[in-house]
Write a structure and sequence with these properties.
The chain is an alpha/beta fold and 477 residues long. The chain contains 14 helices and 17 strands.
Amino acid sequence: MASRVAALRFRSAALRTTQRLPGLVESQLQTRGFASTVTRASHKDASLPNPDPAADSQTVTFINERAPFMVPTYVRPPPMMIKGQGCYLWDMENRRYLDFTAGIAVNSLGHCDPEITKIIAEQSETLIHASNLYHNAWTGALSKLLIQKTLESGAMRGASSVFISNSGTEANEAAIKFARKVGRSLDPSGEKHEFVSFHNSFHGRSMGALSATPNPKYQTPFAPMVPGFKYGKYNDVAQLETLITDKTCGVIVEPIQGEGGVNVATPEFLTALRARCDAVGAVLIFDEIQCGLSRTGSLWAHAHPSLAPANGGQAAHPDILTSAKALGNGIPIGATIVSESTVGKYIKTGDHGTTFGGNPLACRVAHHIVERLADPELQKSVEAKSSIFLSGFQGLKEKYPSVINEVRGRGLILGLQLSEAYVPKASELITAARERGLLIITAGEGCLRFVPPLTVTEEQIKTGLKILEQAVGAVCK
């Protein structure tokens, strides 16, 4: 009885907090003399359902008062999001957006999922942080569940243990360090330290992860990079013999490149990578931070049936698998899953660490999320929803053949590649969609990326496709 009363109290507290945020913003606006309702006259185009706030709007004024205090590392559109529910976001002026970005493939169970909200509220009044100086109930529970679900799904045959961190970048940084440690263990001279990654990849912004991200836009301002990194062409099997050598300690690859343009690895490429890494004793790392956790319709992208070799051999599995994004549905967490036989046995006490990683709040939330995302029924629904998207995209491609060059992706990580002539209009298309109530993002050079919550409904998909068609029609007349 006492636990039920406590649970109700926690839920009530969470609800009060959720409801208070818009009110706090509104009160600040009222204090500044702003109206609490949308003033359509201040918008640049009142005929649009969700026109971006104009320069003299309450939103832009609110933002401009605070922008000088923020390091300007992002360029953002004017709307300020203050509330989310399911597949929708609302901005400061109470305009609703259908969200096909899911926080960049993070909110796979949607915004403010009630079960996750309840868990956060309960754990926040139990224990949030005690550091890795002590055991807690949830780090080990999450690690065990990740291994169990991974093996049950038929993915990563050697999965045995997990390092929990705070983000995808940190998960990849741990993977890079672990591979370097394996290389040093196999060759104490230090010669086996080289790392291989691939063009159009994205692995993070810390110096190690950034060094594995061969994009001049990201690397040049911070050069020189960590030494020892080499870059190859994605899906090119012929190069691997010379690219990966006895000096290679690790190879990192995304089974589906998210940021790079929703490029899908071929089964031949991944199996060739596995064979070459085995031949030279290199650690193979699959970065599934964006494409993993059922986004493709299988728990892990590398175990999707489409990646089974045509000759009937074994699919390529990694020595290290990295995850984040959907793992916390918005709560910061990352995970680096390792194989004992090729990696784990070389990692010793003190080799790596984290202050916040593995805290009971994040791990309890992630434990719940993994249970739900591993559900076969949810995974089947991803495949069904993907078919609706692909059918809509194909229709759009047929209607605008000079605009859309290619449809790429798998499951609910999908991309529309614009033709060369329309690549410069990608940002205009994003804006046109947003001002009609749909949030999408870009990837690579002129690719429109779609990574909605996995809980998106058929009706919402069809609504989004209609808005997308309107946006394409408006921009690409």
